[in-house]
Amino acid sequence: MTTVGLAVGVGLATGCNAAEWPDLPVGLKNGITTKVGDVVYAGLGSAGTAFYALDLGNKGAGWQELAGFPGPAPSGAAFASSGDKIYVFSGSGKANEEAASPIIFEAVHAFDTAEGTWQKMETTTPAGLLGATALTLSDGRIAITGGYNKQLFDTYLADVLGTDKEAEPEKWQKIVDDYMGMAPEAYRWNTKVLVFDPQTVTWGDMGETPYLPNTGAAAIPLEGERFLLVNGEIKPGLRTPQVKEIDLSGKTAVWREVAQVPTPLGEDLQEGLAGAYAGYTEGGPVVAGGANFKGARANAYAGQWFAHNGLAKRWVPQIFGRIHNGWVEIGSLGEGFAYGGAVDVDGGLLLVGGEDSSRTARPDVRLLKWDGSRVSIEP
C-alpha cells in the first residue's frame, strides 16, 4: 500500500454551483460518454438508442437530444472519439424485439458530431468487444483491449435464458455452474491489442497482452501514447487489483505492471474495481467508484472459480488519487456508483450517470475536483 503524506478534505459544493451541471434526461449506465471539442456526448446502454449532447459553453441549455442510434441498442460497447467522430464498437443486446436472448454485436458505428448523423461502418469487429477498453492514439487510430468471447457468451445466454428455472432447476443450475465455474483462461476473452484505422476502415493489431485480458477496466491517458488500465474483470464476477501501463508508441504494445490501487481503509484486500470512473484532475489522475464482490478473490485463491457465488455485489464509494506513481485513498463519492462515464473538463473530472447499489441507472452529473490536497464534488 502506498503511503503518502497528504492532508485530505472532502466537501460537497453548494450554493451557486448547485445548478451548474445539469443532470441527464434519463438514467445512464453501461453506455458511452466522451468529449469532442467543448461538447460532452452521452447515451446508449440503459438509455437505449437515445443520445445526448451538453455544450460546455452553454451548460444552462442542458442536455440536447441528438439523432438516435440506428441499430439495436448496445450495452457495454467499446467507444472512442477520433477527429470529429465518435466510434462505437460491439456491445451486447437483443438483435430485435423478438429475440429470446442478447448477443454480442459485431457492428461498428460512427457518429459525425459536425453533421449530427450516425453511420454504420463497412466492417465488423475481429473479436467480441463487449466490455473492452478503447484508446485513441495521436494519429487518430483507435487501440482496443479486452472484450468477451462472442461464441461462449451468446451460447451461455441462449442456454440459460432458454431453460425454465422453475421447471428444470437442476439443468438451469448446471448451465450456470459450468459457465461461471471456469478458470479465467477458459473464457477466451480477447488477448490482442486490436487497432482500428478510421481513415482506411481497416483492422490490425499490436500484439497480445502478457496478462489476463480484462473487461470493464478504467483507462487514463498519460503522456505520449501511454495509458493506465485500472483493474477490471478477469472473468465474470472476479476482478483484478492489477494496474497496467501500456505504451502504444511502437509497432508492438509494451506492457508493464505498476502500483496497485490500495486496499480501502478498514479492509484486508483490494478486490479490484469494474466500471470505475477515471481521468484527470488538477491534482493528477483519479479513480472513483466501481463495483466488486467482497470475498471473490479469496475464493479464487482457494480454487473456487465460481468466485462470486453467494456473495453480494457492492458498489464502492472510494476515490483514489495517484501521487508520485503510487495511489492513495483521498475521499468518497458519498455512495457507491459504477458503470457511468467520465470525461476531463476544465476544473476536474465530470462524472456522468452510473448505477447505484439498487442497480438503478442514475441521471446524476457531477464534477469531481482534486487539487492534490482537497476533494470536492460539485452537483
UniProtKB/TrEMBL annotation:
Domain of life: Bacteria
Record's keyword terms, sorted: Kelch repeat, Repeat
Pfam families: NANM (PF24996)
Protein name stated in the entry: N-acetylneuraminic acid mutarotase
UniProt organism field: Pseudovibrio exalbescens
Lineage: Bacteria, Pseudomonadati, Pseudomonadota, Alphaproteobacteria, Hyphomicrobiales
